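RETRY 2/3 - previous attempt timed out on the joint model. Re-submitting the same 847-residue input unchanged.
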Amino acid sequence: MYFNGRGEAVSRARWKEMYQAFLNRQELIKAGLTSRRDLLRMGLLGGAGMLIAKNGLSSWGGGNCRYGSTGCGTCASPPTTPWTLPMPIPPVKQAIPVSSLTGPAPSINPNTAINPATSLPYEGRTRAHQAPALGFPFPAGVVYQVTQQQSQVRVSNELPMQNLWTFDGVSPGPTYVAHYGTPVLVRNINNLPVSNGGFGLNSVSTHLHNSHTPSESDGFPCDFFAAGQYYDQYYPNALAGFNSTHVATHGDINESLSTLWYHDHRENFTSQNVYKGLLGFYLLFNQFDTGDETTGFRLPSFPNYDIPMAFADRCFDAQTGMMVFDTFNTDGILGDKFLVNGVIQPVLHVSPRRYRFRWLNTGPSRFLQVYLTDLTSPSTPQPFYQISNDGNLLPHPVQVPAVAMGVAERSDVIIDFSQYAGKTLYLENRLDQPNGQGGPTGSVVAGGQGFLMLKIIVDGPVVADNSINPATLPAYYALPSVSATPRLQRSFNFDQTRDGQWTINGRLFSCASPRFTIQQNSLEEWAFDGGFGWSHPIHVHFEEFQITQGAPGLYGSSSDDPSNYSRWGSQYCWSGCSGGSSGVNVSRKDTVRVIPRGNVKMRMRFRDWLGRYPMHCHNVIHEDHAMMLRFDVATTGDMNTRP
Amino acid sequence: MPEPLRRNLFAALGLVPRTFAPPDSGREVMRKRYFPNVPLVTHEGRPVRFYDDLLKDRIVVLNLMYADCTTLCPMITANLVKAQKILASRVTQEVSFVSLTIKPLDDTPEKLRAYASMHHATTNWLFVTGQPGNLELLRQKLGYADANPDKDRKDRALHSGMVRYGNEPLSQWSSIQGSADPEWIAEEITYVMPTGAVRRTTVR
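RETRY 2/3 succeeded.
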């Protein structure tokens, strides 16, 4: 049997055609043929100057990335049979006694003593922990040790074991289960090899994405540490506002976070290192979001009915079957294989009851719009409830036909499988994105015609469901007010120079000095505007923002998807969205899709901690190549409105 | 039928277990994917091979240029010259600079020699020309061709601001921005050097 990337059987002739198209394109590249005369000679150029539609001839014209066949841009992975491996669920990270840590005891100041075994300082950290001075216990009451190491990982039964870079031997790495009010210390050991199989740098900086973390533990791109070193990261797990606006209540409960993730953020090598496997989940619970469906907001219980899912697309070498990275592509990298929690097109068995899925788009570059599809009736909308837009809960659940996610965006959703007992469903990405340039076209393909990422079989035993039905619209957290007058408005333009360098306000990234300084505890308004023709998922470290204008909604239009549009029309605003936020965009966020010619306004406060943080495009290819800036939070800020 | 295709077709039919070629070392992965060993000519008039003579066993900075360029390339060359000086004071490892012309028919070795001397790019720096097909192959392989063939035909320098750098034996490669501050360019080039070889500036 032959399969395309959606796991559909295709004819032998079609598969051969797909493979031959890939070889054709390689030949063309090998021959260096690009002049009009050469192409005419080869019979590849029509009279009107259009490239003759030959599948896969160019990553631009072929469009294979769009429909999920084998072969996509420069990528032509070997065929794999979908739905043969179960979807892995990363193990929960276990705490250890502080006395069991490898190496010297944790210290508030960085341990810069030279380790005789490596001739390097024991620790890669360069600044003292800020938390103890604010009354947090040191070392924290809960201590973890994690090791970054190369491990053999299975992504498919039909591909060789992959030499991935992992946390503790698995990718995604172990899931941290943290609680507000319980600070943790993570000793992060770099034991990665020099030998990289073609991509990856064994120098790392681990970022806890979306967290209200002191700068020295945030995983700033230039706070990297070498193989043989460790870095102690202190996560206070304190609500924003604890040392500023909400001292009496130890922070603002309405700033609670839930679904965070950690990933490598090593300057200039983030895309390679994350592609190679350095990522995982970090879940935060509190007295309302408890992980127990009989208490608090009564969300489906963790871990049985609360399941994190990391989406990724990857490319594998046609000859060796090993994961390959498109090192010299500075536009954006799309793969032709979809992975969920590290396995290509896996299967998940569920019981007929409500589940909370925590969806995360890990990139590197692809935008997603995820639908629940029943292939026996692919055009029938299968709505579900979205309860978060990035790492926190919405004011209340919102019923949606799909969820759109740029790289690093997250959505927690609640799907009630009791209505699907005995059925088989799929998570399907229907967003049309033909290649690594630009971004999504804005169209969605018909149900059943996109990339099928996960098969869900509702054949588990009937079990009790004590979670609250989201259709009753329970209230979660109110939005903190941002109606005060901002201290200033700063404007940022995301663009590219004529010779291909990614810029913010026409300038390039450097760690060496901040582009602007924010006055601690002040409210700021930022205006983002997108360049011509490209979509950029822009991420701000440290604090969450609220979008006051121009929030992007679902992709698609009435002509693409009339059945969805008529029902959810007001949410479809992926282009030229100029109004105030509605639906799932009435939320706090840490990443926003800035669409071509789009304008977004947002407001946020920078509280409690001091130091350096980045803001950047989370298409990690753009991030690595200068579409990033450093800002500092200090007791005195500047008034730079276009930094 | 090419061998890999035949193998995969049979495998897909379930006739034989699919076998894959053994994985290559990182440097072989990079060499096969990106570094054809084409013959070239340096600004000194010396014939060289791209992989054997310019990349193999080296830490290399690679960029595209042409001698008559009046806009972006002279600025990038000037930045790289400054970065090279900064590196000399900061690292113990030798760094080779290679500039590939995108106009090999215009850029004779003499013309490139004049360009090198005008920019004082004389140490550990080769400006390279050769057969147009070979230079074009390198432009494509090194990721400098735009994915949109129409745009690429109109301007073959659309991505030339991205300067490649890497440690060939360790297969550590990335891109830096040619318009960046030379201090920052130098700092980023040290990323592919062993820790002991670098006196690193501290980020404050």
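The CA atoms of residues 149 and 155 of chain B lie 10 Å apart. Closing ticket.
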